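User: I'm designing a mutation panel for N-lysine methyltransferase SETD6 and want to avoid disrupting the core. Could you give me a predicted structure to guide residue selection? Please restate the sequence first so the numbering is unambiguous.

Assistant: Good idea. Sequence first, for numbering, then the predicted structure tokens:
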Amino acid sequence: MVGEEGAFVVGWDEVLTEEELSMTLKVLSMSEEEFKEYKEQDGWEDDSEEEENSTLSNEALSRLKAPCKKLLHDSVLLTLESYRSDLKADQDLLNNKEAYEKLSRREQQALHVRYGQKRILHQVLELVR
């Protein structure tokens, strides 16, 4: 369902891998009985038109059903825990000109990427509260 990477791509305005995330949240929030029934439908393509035409914008994320919100919330927390520093530490480093300039160019670029990723993850947390 998720592909080789095992990750979803979330942008500032929407989920970029929306089909994979929607399907994963749907399946993971099913009971064992619901999953067996869904699997027996001879194809995962038989979803309703509503699901096919929806996009996972930020607004749509905030309207997810409670079980899906919890799954997404917990997943984001696990992802944030995988970083060595938190959002505030990265922000402090970005704001500290002297410390920032001591970093190599590669470290500066990594800091910007990491900070951006964390900001998006925190935004998702807010949306699924």
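For picking mutation sites, this is relevant: Residues 105-127 form the longest helix (23 residues). The two ends are 25 Å apart (CA to CA).
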